[in-house]
Design brief:
Elements (H helix, E strand, L loop, with lengths): L1 E5 L6 H12 L3 E3 L18 H4 L4 E2 L12 H17 L4 E4 L3 H8 L11 H9 L2 H11 L1 H6 L5 H12 L4 H7 L7 E6 L3 H18 L1 H9 L15 H9 L3 H26 L4 E3 L1 H15 L1
Length: 295
């Protein structure tokens, strides 16, 4: 069985997943587009070395920002891990906040080769990010509401599908059955409580030295790398460039994170038909109950 623990950012899913993986000796697979990078630590709320020590874990802290991961590569690598554990008949925990990655790994999510639509792709690539978003809103409002608007590649991919008459929102609904035996949970959290947790987390990140981490990265890597477009990093990169104060950067990160959490909540409700919204304690109890039955 694959136990999938999801939730909006700052809901506590990472800690719950790692705690359960440690207690029951389960492999832990990450599903976060930025926790996968070794150099991104403070701003991704990634589990530290001590929290990961002794765990079998994958797609967490396993590559450099100079080798960006995309959804297609994630799908391939995650499925390879899942397939191996399925053969071994071992249970697995998969957890993270990049919900498109989860969808791509667990469901029959397909990618059309870019070379099959050169004219449309070329047109979409000629648009500014603002123009692409506006056109996506006109062509596929449902996808527009859910897409990560801070990720130009995902916006472009969704827009190409929409212009071809293959709305991403409709395609997702057609692919409702997962490829693997899994139980999918989302941590239920009140929106206001979630926003408070987001604000607290951002404050803590600045106290831990997020600005210094970003400055260090800028001294080593091209700031235009897609792997450096994570919320918390791109705002500071822009803030440093434009001379913003620390407080201005902090407030921008809080705002963008709250907006991202809203999109996560929408995605969770509409893209995982069998998902169950439970408290952290209820999720823990259910998985513990399953583990006791196995033993």
């Amino acid at each position: 069985m694959i136990y999938v623990i999801l939730g909006q950012t700052a809901s506590g899913k990472t800690k719950l997943a790692s705690d359960l993986a440690r207690r029951f000796h389960l492999p832990l697979i990450g599903a976060d587009a930025y926790q996968v990078y070794q150099e991104l630590n403070i701003g991704t709320a990634k589990p530290n070395k001590e929290e990961l020590e002794g765990l079998e874990y994958f797609l967490i802290d396993d590559r450099s920002v100079s080798s960006p991961l995309n959804v297609m590569t994630y799908q391939k690598e995650c499925r390879a891990v899942l397939d191996q554990y399925q053969k071994e008949k071992r249970d697995v925990i998969l957890s993270g906040g990049t919900l498109l990655y989860v969808r791509a790994a667990l469901y029959p999510y397909e990618f059309a080769p870019e070379e099959e639509r050169p004219e449309i792709t070329g047109y979409v690539n000629s648009l500014t990010p603002e123009e692409a978003l506006k056109l996506l809103e006109e062509k596929d409002r449902e996808t527009f509401e859910k897409v990560d608007r801070n990720n130009p590649r995902r916006v472009s991919r969704a827009l190409v599908l929409a212009l071809e008459g293959k709305k991403a929102s409709e395609k997702a609904k057609e692919q409702a059955e997962p490829l693997y035996p899994c139980k999918i949970y989302a941590i239920e959290i009140d929106k206001d409580e979630g926003n408070k947790k987001i604000d607290l987390r951002v404050d803590e990140m600045f106290e831990e030295g997020l600005i210094g981490e970003v400055k260090s990265l800028l001294g080593r890597f091209d700031p235009s790398l897609s792997s450096l477009q994570a919320i918390g990093y791109k705002e500071i990169i822009e803030g440093l460039r434009s001379g913003q104060s620390e407080e201005e950067m902090k407030e921008k990160i809080k705002l963008d994170t709250r907006r991202y959490a809203k999109r996560q909540r929408t995605f969770l409700r509409h893209q995982f038909p069998s998902i169950r919204f439970l408290s952290k304690e209820e999720i823990r109890e259910e998985i513990e109950s399953d583990m006791k039955k196995v033993s």
